[in-house]
Design a protein that fits this description.
The chain is of the alpha/beta class. Helix content is 33%, strand content 19%. It has 14 helices and 13 strands. The chain has an eight-stranded mixed β-sheet, with helices on both faces. Helix 9 links the parallel strand 8 and strand 9. The longest helix has 19 residues.
């Protein structure tokens, strides 16, 4: 029996409210050995108060030692085993901007980048160009790239990101990314991982050849890389798996796509975290599960800006009283992965996790929220996919198992 089958057999209706506040890339590292992490450095009186009243621990997004992408990281938090649900980033990005992904489609996430005269990548994000520039470049690609034998859709997402969708017969999604993952290297060729994906790889290679010609005189975004080739997967919804009426309040498209993938209602979030909490308040009576996503703890970590990540954690903490005022029955604060500023990337490190449930929490001895305190917490170290059953149990939504 799978965990989802078990939960289906035990779940029962309740009027309780569950909130997952996901601070993307929350976990960090000290800049110097023996120092404090970003979360430990930040002044977080409100998160500390929740930690003192609740229970803390460390979650492992996929498996020990495995560095997760945002897709697997969030699927684990939603209770879906990332090792059984390998979902490419392209379909998530597409769904996030309301691009349909059908049975004959392969969706891909594109990143505008900067290459030098020798074709080596000098900036993987093209200086984080503004969205308006991205939209103009996408318009040029639509006009200038025509690949025979396939219907191609190109849409701007946000900043340097875009979505490419190939539609046609015989398209597989087992194609390697073209991002070399480091500057100073040439972009990679889109190589098929199996015979069923050879056609897709050839189409992608021709798309990139034409795109390079179209973008050659642009600056700084004079090329693009393709990542996360993906067809639409089969996966249960939050209602099917848990009996929850779930809503997502996320600013960035990919996380809206993740939410749509598992059947959440996606609402307009506003622009700031304060806006997102107001949206939660306005929708409080309509839903019983609230996924609220906060991006800036991740982007500042990827930029290697320790001080700015500390600032973003403190900004998050300052808004916590507004969320607490809604009186959720269960409030979980965690991240989908760690993004240490020292590494400038996602990492394999477990993620600090806080579970606050006034009626059912068994408080531990921890009184602050951080990586080292979490090592001493009552939740211990656990796989992220086990967090959802805990949330349901604390929300009184699971019956007794067995006689």
């Amino acid at each position: 029996m799978s965990m989802h089958d078990l939960i289906r057999s035990l779940r029962e209706p309740a009027k309780t409210k569950i909130v997952f506040l996901v601070a993307d890339g929350l976990g960090g590292l000290p800049i110097e050995p023996g120092g404090k992490t970003e979360l430990e450095t930040a002044r977080t009186p409100n998160l500390d108060a929740l930690a003192a009243e609740g229970t803390v621990g460390l979650s492992t997004p996929v498996a020990p030692g495995i560095t997760p992408g945002s897709g697997p990281g969030h699927l684990g938090l939603f209770g879906f085993d990332p090792l059984k649900h390998d979902i490419g980033r392209g379909v998530l990005e597409a769904l996030g901007i309301n691009v349909e992904v059908g049975p004959n489609d392969v969706a891909i996430r594109g990143n505008f980048c900067t290459i030098d005269a020798d074709g080596r990548v000098t900036d993987r994000r093209a200086g984080r160009i503004p969205t308006e520039t991205c939209e103009a470049l996408v318009a040029k690609l639509r006009a200038g790239v025509k690949v025979e034998g396939v219907e191609t859709l190109i849409e701007a997402v946000r900043e340097y990101r875009l979505v490419v969708r190939f539609r046609g017969e015989g398209l597989g999604d087992n194609v390697a990314d073209t991002d070399p993952l480091s500057t100073g290297l040439h972009t990679l060729e889109p190589k098929a991982g199996d015979a069923a994906s050879e056609k897709t790889a050839k189409i992608a290679a021709e798309f990139l050849r034409q795109a390079k010609l179209v973008l050659k005189d642009e600056s700084p975004a004079n090329f693009l890389m393709l990542r996360g080739f993906a067809s639409f997967p089969k996966i249960a919804t939050m209602e099917e798996a848990y009996g929850l009426n779930a809503v997502a309040i996320a600013v960035y498209p990919m996380y809206r796509g993740l939410a749509r993938l598992v059947g959440m209602t996606v609402v307009e979030p506003g622009k700031t975290l304060a806006d997102q909490f107001e949206v939660a308040k306005a929708n409080w009576e309509k839903y019983d599960f609230f996924f609220i996503h906060y991006k800036y703890t991740d982007s500042t970590g990827e930029d290697g800006n320790f001080a700015k990540k500390v600032e973003m954690i403190e900004a998050l903490d300052a808004e916590i009283p507004k969320l607490r005022a809604l009186n959720p029955d269960v409030l979980i604060v965690t991240g989908d992965h760690s993004t240490p500023s020292r590494m400038k990337s996602h990492s394999f490190h477990p993620v600090p996790t806080l579970l606050w449930a006034p009626a059912t929490s068994r408080p531990d001895l921890v009184t602050t929220f951080g990586e080292r305190p979490a090592l001493q917490g009552g939740l211990g170290q656990f796989l992220a996919k086990d967090l959802m059953p805990l949330a349901l149990a604390h929300a009184n939504r699971l019956q007794k198992f067995g006689a």
